[in-house]
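User: Hi! I'm working on a homework problem where we have to compare a predicted structure to a textbook description. Could you give me the structure for the chain below?
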Amino acid sequence: MSDMAGRRANIMALLSQFKSIYRSVNELLRQEIRVVIGPFILQRIKGVIRSYEEARARFARLAVPEAPTLAYIEEAEAGKFPIRLLERMKHECEMAITFLESLLYELTPDEVDKLNSLRNELNSIKALDPGIHLHLENALMEYENRHYLSVTILSGKVIVYVLEQIRGKSYEEKLKELKSRNILPEYLEVDFLNAAKRARNYYTHNIDTSPAASDALDMLARSFQFANMLKKYRESIEFSQKDENRGNHREN
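Assistant: Happy to help. Predicted structure tokens:
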């Protein structure tokens, strides 16, 4: 496992631990402990404190300069001010969870490279179609914010729009049209059909879709491919029309 993958795994495990502590604290606060603190509840509170202190120590070992300093909580305080202690621990867990999630959702170097590569294509796409450009620009920003469903919807809209510009009723007919103009190589035929179907599902059919990062990035990359495909398709049609006009002119 690489250092980055190992660090990410540690952050995920620590995040899970703090979320578990947070749930336990909330559960205790929801109970009627404001009236009576019995020995059983007291032991539960002390157990949560021990879990919190273990997580707090692991959190400190992350050694991230911008990390917040979490408060130390003593077991001895459990019997004196239990409500105040639990509310304080809840607040500390919230800070830890927020910070860990910000670390966890940072882009990986591969993601940064891919997004930068796609962003470099935006200028040429803007000349092709301002609407497509706007959707792809927003999709890039949504990916950076980890809004994967938004990414797939925006990307899917682009793919569906491109498909609507290509002659043919079915995906197979559209594929044939692109092949006839030497726009789509044979080795990409399956990818074309799969992307077309996935885009339609994300955009119009599958209400329960919850795409992962890899799904969103793949759909985003496909939408750029389809946009570039549309550029070539329009150029091909324009060339055919000019060629046809020249032929008609010679006949006249």
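For your comparison, note the following. Residues 3-104 form one domain. Residues 123 and 133 are 8 Å apart (CA to CA). Good luck with the assignment!
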